[in-house]
Amino acid sequence: MGIIIKSDEEIAAMRQAGRITATVLEVLKLQVRPGMKTKELDVIAARELERLGAKPSFKGYQGFPANLCISVNDEIVHGIPGERILAEGDIVSLDIGAIFMGFQGDAATTVGVGKISPQAKQLIEATEGALKAGIAAAHPGARLGDISAAIQYYAESRGYSVVREYTGHGIGREMHEEPQIPNFGLPGTGPMLKKGVTLALEPMVNAGDWRTRVGDDHWTVLTADGSLSAHFEHTIAITDGEPEVLTIV
Ligand code: MG
User: Fold this and answer.
1) CATH number, domain containing residue 238
2) What is the pTM of this model?
3) N or C: which end of the chain has fewer CB within 10 A?
4) Distance 178 CA to ligand 1 centre (A)
C-alpha cells in the first residue's frame, strides 16, 4: 500500500482528531495522583472521548480491553489499566488514541506521581527531548532515517537506550499505516518525506538496556532489566515548511 499522502482536507480532519486526543491526554495528566487505581484513568478517558464525540482507537484493537494504555515505571508501553494503585514516586506513561471524522490521533506522555527522583525526571525530560528532536527532523526532502537517527542520538548521547522492538508509524484513517518509524537508524536512509505525510513519532526510552519482555497479561511490554522507561508521542504532518504537530490542544 505504501505511504499514504493526505490532502489538505484530510489533514484538517486529522487536526481535529489530534486536538481531541491531546485534550483527553491533558485531562488525564491532571488526574494522576498517588493512591488512585489505574482503571480510574480509563473511566475518565472513556468519558472524555465520549464528551468530545470521538471513539477510542485502542479499545478492541487486536482485543485490547481498555481506552488507553497505562505503563508504570519499568513498563514501557501497552499496559492495561486495572487494579494497580499508583504510588508517590512512580512514573506513568499514558498513551491514547482517538477516532474522529474517520481519522486517528495518537499521543502519549509520561508524568510523575507526586514527587519523583531526579533520575526519573531526567529520563522523562530526555524522552520528551528525543521526540522534539525527531519532530525537528521531519522536513520535506528529509529521509525517514533522519527522524530515527535524531531520536536515537538525543537519547543515547544522554546515556539512555531506545527501545528497538516497537516503533512509531504512519497514521491516518488507520492507526497503523506505513511506514514503521524505528527510534534508531541512519540519517539519509529510508523513504523521502513530503507534504501530506502524517506520522506518529513515539520514542520509548529506557534508563538501562533497550531489550524488552512481554508480561503475563500478554500485552504489557517491560524493560528486560527492570530499569525505568518513558514514552512520548505526537501525531504530526509534514508540510512545506515546519512540521505541524496535530496532537496539541
Ligand atoms: Mg502510536
Assistant:
1) 3.90.230.10
2) 0.98
3) N
4) 12
